[in-house]
Design a protein that fits this description.
The complex is a heterodimer. Chain A is of the alpha+beta class. In chain A, 61% of the residues lie in helices and 9% in strands. In chain B, helix 11 runs antiparallel to helix 12. The chains are: A alpha+beta, B alpha+beta.
């Protein structure tokens, strides 16, 4: 049986040559992502803004304006309706009632459910979330803190295990991945909730994983080929690890695709975020972190002068051409 | 590198066998586990998002704790000062601004009053700090203020009491396997799988249920009632409909003296709550009612007057009936609340998540389908790419699935929906280790190394990379576990377990298989 080889042996693609263009494009995209997040904001779920979420499942996709008007009549504030890919499932989002004690919230859930059932007898209510403003504030703070700590801890690890340039370039690349993911959520208006924080942290983890593999190879090649310039080493390392990069991203994408198609609507946002993250993370391994190493002036070290102790310590070192 | 002594091979297979065996109880489900008599073995719990149920986070009103402590201290001080010999006369007692202050009428008694007040404070912790600060200000005014440590201790005490009360109430509902834990200093997390009516549950556990019987103060004038100004020793409370009534401050009897509460019917066949007091309470109730025949008393629940019946005859035996506008359900709920005792602190629901069992079942089905399809796709992909080495990797991935399940079961872990996503992702990343190894072997072969050297170098060099990669992955997983809440945590648990087990299956286990193949067949060339 002939085995599948997605990437031919000994590729020699000059990835590094495009790096100036890639930097420009990356910077532009990142700015656009940040600008979109700032201007349009994220479609934050009740986890992060507080409020009431009732998920209703219908036998047939309901007309949204009829559903909206049946709830609007209750005067419960700004109603937001959202469908999860599957048009039969609608999430109804409401602000919490003013005097938010249990009685008022319970009553409001009941009123909304009764009103919806009156217009749509086929409605079934599958999920209810109530999050108070205080808890949502804590959740958003804890979520952001988790992402920040993860990124910094990983950059520190890169610094410890490798040179500082690796830590720094990884940090920049990860920051890029996180910002792009946020931008994606700002553009698509997909709901940003707690599970997306898990997705962002996974993207961070995956992306680091990918960078470490290339960084490890760069470090190995820097020791092996002390005379080669950095551009050559980065190119060689990226090419050498290319089959693995392609194989691994494909297997993970296969896993994620099956999750997106068959995993049910609750996980859809999480899966989309991760699919995007795999693509962005793989890109940033080559064009952000590895390329940045050249810019940061990392150089393979020529063999150090032999350390001499005792009387010869102050003697002049005369390099010889012979190297054993 | 490729030398596997017999004991090592044996222990690897043994570990994997255990890994498969311990996953079985979780895989076959509860009913089958009972049928085969393995229900006592550890199993994976399903999170509420998969089993259906309610997650309710309650927060204590800590200001309420301070308030009730101040009120209790006020009572103590009043009675202690009156009981002192000679009696210490005090006045201008106030409990505003989070402190108790009172005026000692006779300046010569200030020292005695100060000592008396001090004797009612207690030490907190081991540092010698007290729970109350007592100070004399303006010569003959004494101010008592709870210290920060004292407040923390009061809240702590109230919270442990509240957890007990909440547990009793939920147990009374007969729900199975509820989780009731304290979170931080002032929160209680309640997780109840498979509840039919979460609103009812919330109403029950959030209810303070402080029951008091007090004599009605008939001396209060209409004007005083209207202005909400109570005569000395009395207070103005309200009926459910909002109309005011004056009652004496001192209770005849309270819910703490109650031994039994149950739903019953009155002579008009209306639902009521029948209560029984303990001997001491019954005696006191009998005595007070004997002295006040013909006068009304108020039945007060959580500071709202339910009714104010007239005492027709002395009520002996300690039995009483609370009537109001009850339905059978609400009378039952009140009976449970009274029976379990009053909450020592008011609780408020700050977060609630309810998932219907049907959605949970859908999610499990979808999760299993997605995992199965992902596994099959990856297995085929590895097979066509790496041939024999792909089969080894596939065996590793499949065993890894069982091992992760086993480890989760042994730790009594909870599988949530994001956990299933973590599972699928772990399947995807676990093969990364094998991809790294196999690509490295291919590379070394291309560089002209012989079969043994290529395999040895492949494992050696790739192992270093795998360690670095897993370490960083582990860092982000740990951060998720420590910092994350709810779904993030469920995801992190699976991810972290997967990182550890995948190193064992993807590196150690496959190396053993490859070593066995090389030794037995001594291939001159590798098909990889």
């Amino acid at each position: 049986m002939r085995l599948l080889k997605l990437i031919p042996d000994d590729t020699n693609i000059d990835f590094v040559r495009l790096r100036a263009w890639a930097f420009g494009l990356t910077a532009l995209l990142t700015v656009v992502a940040v600008a979109t997040v700032v201007t349009r904001g994220l479609n934050l779920g009740v986890d992060f803004v507080g409020g009431l979420m009732i998920e209703a499942k219908f036998d047939q996709a309901p007309p949204l304006n009829k559903l909206r008007s049946s709830i609007d009549r209750l005067n419960v504030g700004d109603v937001q309706l959202q469908q999860f890919g599957d048009k039969k499932i609608v999430s109804i989002r409401l602000p919490l009632p003013k005097n938010a004690d249990e009685g008022a919230t319970n009553a409001e859930v009941k009123r909304v459910q009764t009103a919806v059932t009156a217009s749509f007898p086929d409605a079934a209510f599958t999920r209810t979330d109530t999050v108070s403003g205080k808890v949502s504030g804590e959740l958003i703070w804890k979520g952001s803190l988790a992402v920040l700590i993860a990124v910094f801890a990983i950059a520190l690890w890169g610094w410890f295990r490798f040179e500082w340039q690796f830590g720094f370039s990884t940090f920049v690349a990860i920051a890029h991945d996180v910002l792009m993911t946020l931008g994606f959520f700002a553009v698509t208006r997909l709901e940003f909730d707690l599970t997306i924080v898990a997705a962002v942290l996974t993207i961070v983890g995956y992306s680091i994983n990918d960078k470490i593999v290339i960084d490890d190879r760069i470090r190995e090649n820097m020791r092996k080929y002390r005379q080669m310039d950095m551009r050559g080493i980065v190119n060689l390392s990226v090419n050498e690890t290319l089959p693995r990069t392609v194989m691994t991203s494909l297997t993970i994408l296969l896993a994620l695709a099956s999750l997106a198609l068959f995993g049910g609507h609750v996980l859809r946002g999480l899966t989309f975020a991760m699919i995007l993250g795999v693509v962005v993370g793989t890109y940033s391994s080559i064009y952000v972190s590895s390329s940045l190493l050249i810019t940061l002036g990392l150089q393979p070290q020529p063999l150090a002068a032999p350390k001499v102790k005792g009387v010869a310590a102050n003697a002049e070192y005369v390099p010889t051409n012979e190297r054993r | 590198m490729l030398n596997f002594p017999r004991w090592k091979v044996f222990s690897i297979w043994l570990a994997l066998l255990a890994g498969v065996l311990f996953s079985i109880p979780s895989l076959i489900g509860e009913t089958n586990a009972k049928r085969f008599g393995v229900e006592s073995l550890p199993r994976i719990n399903l999170g509420l998002d998969l089993s259906g149920g309610s997650h309710i986070l309650l927060e204590a009103d800590t200001a309420d704790v301070t308030k009730s402590r101040l009120a209790a201290m006020e009572d103590t001080i009043r009675s202690e000062m009156a009981r002192a010999d000679p009696a210490i006369e005090i006045g201008e007692v106030s409990t505003t601004n989070g402190q108790l202050s009172f005026f000692v009428r006779d300046a010569s008694q200030v020292d005695a009053a100060f000592e008396k007040a001090r004797s009612h404070t207690a030490g907190v912790g081991t540092t010698g700090a007290r729970d109350w600060d007592v100070a004399v200000v303006d010569a003959n005014r004494i101010v008592m203020k709870p210290t920060t440590k004292g407040l923390a201790a009061f809240v702590n005490e109230a919270m442990s009491g509240a957890v007990d009360v909440v547990r009793k109430r939920i147990d009374a509902l007969g729900t199975r396997e509820p989780t009731i834990v304290r979170q931080g200093s002032d929160r209680i997390l309640v997780e109840v799988p498979g509840v039919e009516n979460p609103a009812e549950l919330k109403a029950l556990i959030g209810r303070t249920a402080k029951l008091e019987f007090k004599l009605v103060d008939l001396n209060a004038s209409e004007a005083q009632l209207a202005e909400g100004r109570a005569p000395v020793g009395s207070q103005i409370l309200k009926y459910e409909n909002g109309s005011p009534i004056a009652v004496q401050r001192r209770a005849i009897i309270t819910g703490t003296q109650l031994t039994k509460a149950s739903q019953s019917y009155d002579q008009n066949n209306q639902p009521t709550v029948a209560i029984t007091f303990n001997t001491e309470g019954a005696k006191r109730f009998g005595r007070v009612t004997q002295e006040n025949v013909g006068k009304p008393f108020a039945i007060i629940l959580d500071n709202v007057v339910l009714s104010a019946p007239r005492i027709n005859e002395p009520i002996m035996g300690g039995n009483a009936q609370i009537s109001g506008s009850f339905t059978v359900q609400s009378a039952q709920a009140l009976a449970i609340a009274l029976q379990s005792g009053a909450l020592p602190v008011a609780l408020k629901v700050v977060e609630e998540r309810t998932v219907e069992a049907s959605l949970g079942a859908d999610s499990i089905r979808a999760g299993i389908t997605a995992s199965a399809i992902a596994s099959v796709a990856i297995v085929l992909f590895m097979l066509v790419t790496y041939g024999r080495f792909g089969i080894y990797a596939d065996l590793a991935v499949i065993l890894n699935v069982f091992v992760i399940l086993s480890v989760m079961a042994l730790f009594n872990g909870t599988l949530t929906l994001p956990g299933i996503a973590g599972f699928v992702l772990t399947i995807g990343t676990a093969v990364d280790a094998n991809v790294l190894i196999n690509e490295r072997i291919r590379e070394e072969r291309r560089r002209g190394r012989n079969v043994i050297q290529a395999v040895e170098l492949g494992y050696k060099e790739a192992s270093r990379t795998i360690f670095e990669a897993n370490a960083t992955h582990g860092i982000s997983g740990t951060v998720m576990l420590l910092m994350g809440s709810g779904p993030v945590k469920g995801f992190a648990v699976v991810l972290l377990i997967g990182i550890v087990t995948s190193v064992f299956t993807a590196v150690t286990f496959t190396r053993m298989l490859v070593a066995g193949y090389l030794r037995r067949q001594r291939p001159q060339t590798l098909h990889i």
